[in-house]
Amino acid sequence: MKTVLIVDDEESILSVITEYLAMRDEELALLTATDGKKAMEIMQSSASIDLVITDLRMPVMDGFELIRYMAVRHPETPVIAMSGTDPGRVEALDIGNPFRYIEKPFLFEDLAMMVEGLI
């Protein structure tokens, strides 16, 4: 079983993505966090996270900071960054992790295909 951590400060987006991915692949273990700090805590306490899907703009700790943390502590963990505002800034990150970017709004099918390609 593969574990995916989904990070977004909008509960409705977390819910819809989680439900869609669960429906599409029942063998995925899906965890959620509402900011980068909570995601970091989950990553520190969890044995294995196979993929992180994160929004970039969030309170407390944004997705950029989370991605930088992952590049140091979890360089092998793939990342899908979601945002409607910062593709250039994302491309400038030197993260090392397997990485994809999806622009909001997106089709859930496109996100699911990215997930399948990374895990």
Total of DSSP H or I helical runs spanning 4+ residues: 5
Side-by-side strand order of the widest sheet: 2-1-3-4-5
Straight-line distance between termini: 10 Å
Protein structure class:
alpha/beta
Please state the overall shape, judged from the principal axes of the Cα atoms.
globular
From N to C, what is the helix and strand string? Answer: EHEHEHEHEH
Mean pLDDT: 88
Largest beta-sheet details = 5 strands, parallel
Tally of extended strands? 5
What ranges have pLDDT less than 50 throughout 5 or more consecutive residues? none
Give the percentage of residues in beta strands: 15-25%
Helical content stands at 40-55%
- Integer-rounded radius of gyration: 13 Å
Structure description:
It contains 5 helices and 5 strands. The chain has a 5-stranded parallel β-sheet, with helices on both faces. Helices cover 44% and strands 23% of the residues. Strand 1 (2-7), helix 1 (11-24) and strand 2 (28-33) form a beta-alpha-beta unit. The chain is globular, with a radius of gyration of 13 Å.
Question: Could you outline the blueprint of secondary structure elements for this entry?
Answer:
Layout: E1 2-7, H1 11-24, E2 28-33, H2 36-45, E3 51-55, H3 63-73, E4 79-83, H4 87-92, E5 99-103, H5 108-118
Parallel strand pairs: 1-2, 1-3, 3-4, 4-5
What does this entry show, briefly?
With 119 residues, the protein is of the alpha/beta class. It has 5 helices and 5 strands, in the order E-H-E-H-E-H-E-H-E-H. Strands 2-1-3-4-5 form a 5-stranded parallel sheet, sandwiched between helices.
